[in-house]
Amino acid sequence: MRSVQGNEGRAVRPHVLRFAMSFAMMIVLVVGLYAGHIQKQHQRLESLRAEHRKIESELKQVKAITDEARPVVVLENGDTSVIVDLNQSKQTYY
């Protein structure tokens, strides 16, 4: 009669439970690693965005400085340098 009933009357085998628990632990581990990877990528992206904003602000400052700079010409001959301000006719020798 037992062979006719099959597995309906038996309890779940221990190795099946062990396999199911191992599989569940593996899934939890993979999900945790994936979440950590996504978080690290997000932090790196935010870091790159902050660096980009910083570089853009520095570039704006440099452009403002160059807009305010006076046009000059530096002429050099050996040890003598002549700085000519194009807005003034006065020459400075160094």
If you had to describe this structure to a student in words, what would you say it looks like?
- This protein is of the alpha+beta class and 94 residues long.
- The protein has one domain (2-93).
- 63% of the residues lie in helices and 16% in strands.
- The protein has 2 helices and 3 strands.
- A 3-stranded antiparallel β-sheet has the order 1-2-3, with no helix packed on it.
- A hairpin with a 5-residue loop joins strand 2 (80-85) and strand 3.
- The mean pLDDT is 83.
Sheet-strand content, in percent, reads 15-25%
User: What's the domain count?
Assistant: 1
Number of strands: 3
SSE run: HHEEE
Strands in their spatial order, largest beta sheet: 1-2-3
Structural class: alpha+beta
Number of helices: 2
Radius of gyration: 38 Å
Shape descriptor: rod-shaped
Straight-line N-to-C gap: 115 Å
- Ranges with pLDDT <50 over ≥5 residues? none
Major sheet description: 3 strands, antiparallel
**Share of helix among residues?**
55-70%
Classify the oligomer: single chain
Averaged pLDDT, please? Answer: 83
Notable characteristics:
about 90 residues, rod-shaped, three-stranded antiparallel sheet, alpha+beta, 2 helices
Quick recap of the structure?
The protein contains 2 helices and 3 strands, in the order H-H-E-E-E.
Write the layout of secondary structure elements.
Elements: H1 2-5, H2 14-68, E1 72-77, E2 80-85, E3 91-93
